[in-house]
Amino acid sequence: MKLSIIIVNYNVKYFLEHCLCSVRKACKNIDAEIFVVDNASTDGSKAYLEGRFAEVKYFWNEANLGFAKANNLALKETKGDCVLFLNPDTIVAEDCFEKCLNFFSTHADCGAIGVHMIDGAGNFLKESKRSFPTPMASFYKMTGLCKIFPESKQFAKYYAGHLDEYKTASVEVLSGAFMMLSRKVLNRVVGFDEDYFMYGEDIDLSYRIKKTGFKNYYFAETDIIHFKGESTQKNTPDYLKHFYGAMKMFVKKHYSEKKATQLLMYCAVSVSRFFSGIKRMFLNAFKSNPISRKASSLLIVAGHQRFNEMIQLIKFSKKPFVISGRITATHSDNELANGNLKNLAAVIKKEKINYVLFCQQEMSYFMIIDLFMKYRNQSGFLIHTLNCGSIIGSNKKDETGIVIAEE
Questions:
Q1: Rg of the chain (C-alpha set)
Q2: Beta strands 215-226; 110-118: pairing state
């Protein structure tokens, strides 16, 4: 099976660089084509990326077309039996695409696949599996009952909380951060609805896939990191405008024949937007700089030579670090170090480590993703991919993606 991969970029060149490196690894044993659609970035994405990833087919838009139109632009050029819509602030495991394609080949009823996603702190992202927005599901989420009863089929319906995080299941809504569709379904739904500028288009597409008679599957047998970086900043006026505007658009489009449901949904969306606006004002009033100038302790997981290279790159860091030492990444590494991966947790605790930097080369993406989950919330996590000009990661115990250092 041939796979077409579409990534929309907007001012996140460093995240996209790491994403494309992981995509390149995951495409090693499959027939694939990669498209990047840039929505008029102003961060020098074109000059930075084109020379590094010559195999990618680029679209350089002169204006921000929005997420749906940008994806559809590349979709017209795809030739794959399956098409993956992928966010630029993601890292995929080496076996991710092969596993998903194998699932398609053995499940004739599968229209689309989403996967197990974690944030930059190693925590499961609940939007990996969701239900369609209904008045009651929205009410339970808005009132906090969803959080109080996270595994309830009724109260946690919005995030399909009754379904096991680690078990594959048919679900209603998949996330646009990773959404793989079969060509036979794409021929029926014809891509994203371009009336959506940003947000909501994945819910709409999931809804239309279900209407064709095919199923959306949450596939739990592979994992990705979704940093949710600069392109998805929440608690801003633009976010509230686009997100809740998209929710109203979805209600108008799909609940028009159910007037009572439509009215209840409009009320739920309006009330939710009001309280989100209050929350935004509160958070912004007490928000600190996401990249603190206070020095943080850093532990580097790498070989001896790579460790020295990271020390040089850290000199360009946007925040100060005190390098606490090195953890060996392989059994054959006999150079002096503070420990190995078996006692990483003990070293983090003993040395009061703020950040752990994992270096891809000695370690696979699969291994790094697994360590994110294993040591979730014990420290902040950073990644450097071999030959990349940046270090990316997340704030400690925070899903927000950040760029720490760049050449």
A1: 21
A2: parallel
What is the pTM assigned to this prediction? 0.85
Instruction: State how far the Cα of 174 lies from the Cα of 291, in Å rounded to an integer.
Output: 32
Number of Cβ atoms within 10 Å of the Cβ of 211 = 11
Residue pair 387/20 in contact (Cβ under 8 Å)? The answer is no
Class of domain 2-130+172-229: alpha beta
Which residue ranges make up each domain of the chain?
Answer: 2-130+172-229, 237-285, 296-406
- CB of 181 closer than 8 Å to CB of 112: yes
Q: How many CA atoms lie within 13 A of 113 on its CB side?
A: 29
**Chain segment 181-221, per-residue pLDDT in tens:** 999 999 999 888 777 666 668 888 998 999 999 999 999 99
Q: Do the domains at 2-130+172-229 and 296-406 have one common CATH topology?
A: no
pLDDT by residue (tens digit) across 228-284?
A: 754 455 545 555 555 655 555 656 665 656 656 656 665 655 555 555 555 555 555
Those residues whose C-beta lies under 8 Å from the C-beta of residue 287, and which sit 6 or more positions away, are none
**Where do runs of H (alpha helix) occur along 114-236?**
135-143, 145-148, 183-189, 201-211
For the domain covering 296-406, report its CATH number.
Answer: 3.40.50.720
